[in-house]
Amino acid sequence: MKKVIISTCLAAMCGGALLSLSSCADELKPYPWIVDDPNAGTSENLGADDMDVLERQMRTGIPYILNYSHEPDGSWAPHNYQYNRANSIDNYAGYWTTTKANFAFGPAMATLYTDDNGYLGGPNDSGTFMYCKDALFSWNTAKYKVIDKETGEEKEVLQPRPEWRAIALICEAYAAHEIVDFYGVCPFNDWRTQNRNIPQKYESGPDVYKQIFADLDEAVAILKKAQPGPGDLMRVEGSDVNKTMTNWNWRYWVKFANSIKLRMAMNMVDYKDADPVYGPDSKPFDSKTIAEEAVADEIGVLMPTDDRDIAYESNGTWSCVYFFMGNSWNDIRLNASLENILKHFNSPLLAEWFDENSYQIKNSAGVVAPNGIYGIRSGIMMEDVGQPSAGGYGPFAQLSERHKYMKQPFFKRTEATFLRAEGALRGWNMGGTPAELYEAGIRLSLSEWDIDAADIDKYLAQEDCDVVDYRDYYNRNNDIAGRVSIGVKWNDADTKELMLEKIITQKWIANFPMGAEAWTTYRRTGYPRLFPVKINNMKNVDTEMQIRRMSYTRTPNNGAEIDQITELLGGTQDCGTRVFWDINSATWAKDENGQVIPNNNL
What we know:
It is a single chain. The chain is about 35% helix and about 5% strand. By secondary structure, the protein is mainly alpha-helical. The strands form seven sheets. A two-stranded antiparallel sheet has the order 1-10. Strands 2-12 form a two-stranded parallel ribbon. α8 runs antiparallel to α10 (about 250-265) and α15 runs antiparallel to α16. Mean pLDDT is about 90; it is low at about 1-45.
């Protein structure tokens, strides 16, 4: 584990005493200034003067934008990811289900939907900003130490590296927009400057989004001018192919930036700002304009024809965090929603990603389930799960051994393609029709897992798919009727709302295992139709509407921050208050069964 402690939970686990922005009690604690990793600099910000240290800081900081925690010694450290994502967002997204109430770190978690469950503050992580500070502000003042060929003595040489500022801007943009999407607000500028004054100044979601768009525009312009080569990019991405997000190709950093712009533009599609401009040039703060600009850029967004996603490739070296958490620790299992939706569509990905149970699943009455691939419903009473041979929920589906070394994605080509499909449905210029982009996204989502072309054609041709009910063969009290009734085949006669449901549902499948984007899109559109939790102990959270944001617990040391957050949100500081772009869901009706009827005003 790095010596930079991201949460007080992890600090306790490592015997440290450092404080950070999040903790096991969901506090907003000050501040992770101390950096005692010799590869990353010190609390005195040595990277502000030494370019070699600055670059080492970047190599340490880049993995933090998604908390995969890629360690310098070549191992994955999934504790960080578990605290920040797996025990919250990946459940909300419908991909994984947390299977334990007690962990090797952090507090017990009574249920997923408990206001003070100990993990809601996890994603509020500023590690990226800490490591990016010097690249952001000292790219033109830090110096390289070189040996003078004539004298043999060390000297300092000034070589400004604006491309390091550009990459820092992109990393911060990715981290900050997700944090805003989770919580609604964040102290963006205080994080990036490491302001030590208490309380930190929180900024509204629209204000952070505006600055991020301006940052991404700047980053793209810098990279197009600098065009750093592979050797240059190795200085901040590392020379190991397993640790590079772009395979040392500056164009992929540009595609990454433009793809983030496209995602954010779609997030705010229903939001209308009182001052709809951003940046020094007062560009339109308008989703259509921003999305079309990102796609029309000469380098553009990630495309199906590109040879890679923005992702870490483990290449058979280190197991991915999902395999480690599920198969080594038995802390996660397949989510019932993912099982159910894949079965509804007869998707070959279910058997590709997961295997049938190798040990019996038996309920309290001794009834044995037929062999199959089974997920666990989110939000049931937490129960410690052991090895598959231990019985109970142990035999439920883990990630298949075939994907022990699954790549760890930051942004997928499939997501960018489905975003373009939705944009085209809304009448935007996305370089294709909704039908063309929808089919391209599905073909890529299946072919990237080596599904045969004939099976892909068969999948796309499904006009009608049977509704599949969920059965919990260990505890039938958790059974629930299936909710997805749509087919796969595109039909120009469908309503636009139905077309949107098809696009988003297939995008949700394609984006596995990226829970953050899936949860954001679910809240924005109501799709796919995920199962609600069984037990809801959260105040002001409608079980069918599901959690709308993540919240913090007020404590003696964070009252001023909580007051700011409440004011900026314009609502109570709980999990039922909506973030700024979550507009339409406030007006959605329910059917006779109490299920939500999404209406995206297309």
